[in-house]
Amino acid sequence: MKFKSVFMSYSKTMVPVNGKTPELKPEMPIRYAAYTAFNYFYRNMILNEKGTLIDNDPESLHYFRVSSKRLRVALSVFRPYLNQTQINYFKDEIKTLAPILGSPRDIDVYLEFLTEEVLPEISADERKSLKKYIEFFKESRRNLRRPVMEKINSARYRNFKRRFEVLLAKGLSGCRNSSSSGIAKFAEREINSGVKSLLRTARLLLRRSSDKRLHRFRIECRKMRYRTELFLSLLGDDGKKTARILVEIQNALGGWHDSVTACEKLDHFLELHPQFRRSSSIRNLRKIQKHRIGRFKRKFFRKLKEIRKIRKFV
């Protein structure tokens, strides 16, 4: 009952929240630290879920998606110390959110780019033409709301939440005095292992590396960032430095990926509306988007050199 009352107090808030780091203490037993982290990310996930239902701020959906990914990372990190079959079930259920939340978020990012970066830079005549293009994606975004609502209101998703809240209630009450070793050394080993793996992959990346390979590295970098931020309260200044470098690399690769998919969106639009192929605003938009691909790719390889500064954990 204590857990439920705390949980409900959080869920009444509707402001988007990007919770990154649970409050873990060095002396915490590993299993208790695991449930503390699960509880933290799950509450953030549900808080942003409620904001997504209201739909008055696109950042709620964004952080709903991010907090679900952070929870999946935490489940993976602590899986060896818990019931692995049970943990796998929860990971698989959370993973079903990814494509449903990813599609509308992708369009939100694109619409923000179009309205904030492109429209102010083009002529009034071009702006009028481009607004028709923007409306196409606004309509696509509205259509993608229905699958999100259906997922949140589905019996399967409600069952997942019910079972996960039972897991949290039992775990938080039953593992406080666990005899397992403290979390501090475990956290350092986890970050050490992850950084070494990331460095090995980074050394193989070249400017001519395929888009697919860069995309895989982007995902690996994001997971390593989430793992680092999971333990940030235990890692001191070196952990903060590591997280900062990973954020900068991920942001550069994220900008590159958004630019690549922006070109794909434009091509899809022109397949459906070939009459716009001669539009000067569309031609200019294509140039802007291709330029962004090169700019973010160059930025990524500059930032990639920073990864060599991650020394503490290797």
3D architecture notes:
The structure is a single chain. The protein has 11 helices and no strands. With 314 residues, it is mostly helical. The chain folds into 2 domains: 1-9 and 29-178, CHAD domain; 182-314, Alpha solenoid (CHAD domain). Helix 2 runs antiparallel to helix 7, helix 8 runs antiparallel to helix 9 and helix 10 packs antiparallel against helix 11. The longest helix has 41 residues, at 232-272. Residues 1-13 have low confidence and may be disordered.
Please give a handful of descriptors for the protein shown.
single chain; 314 residues; mainly alpha; CHAD domain; 0% strand; disordered N terminus
Please provide a brief summary of the model.
The chain is an all-alpha fold and 314 residues long. 78% of the residues lie in helices and 0% in strands. The radius of gyration is 22 Å and the shape is globular.
Summed over residues and divided by their number, the pLDDT gives a mean of: 91
Query: What is the H-and-E element order?
Result: HHHHHHHHHHH
Q: Can you summarize the main beta sheet?
A: none
Provide the CATH architecture of the largest domain: Alpha solenoid
**Measured distance between first and last alpha carbons:** 44 Å
Count of DSSP E strands? 0
Structural class: mainly alpha
Overall outline:
globular
Beta-strand percentage?
A: under 5%
Total number of helices = 11
Main CATH class of the largest domain: Mainly Alpha
Q: What does the radius of gyration come to?
A: 22 Å
Low-confidence stretches: 1-13
Approximate helicity band: over 70%
Number of domains: 2
What is the H level of CATH, i.e. the homologous superfamily of the largest domain?
CHAD domain
CATH topology value of the largest domain: CHAD domain
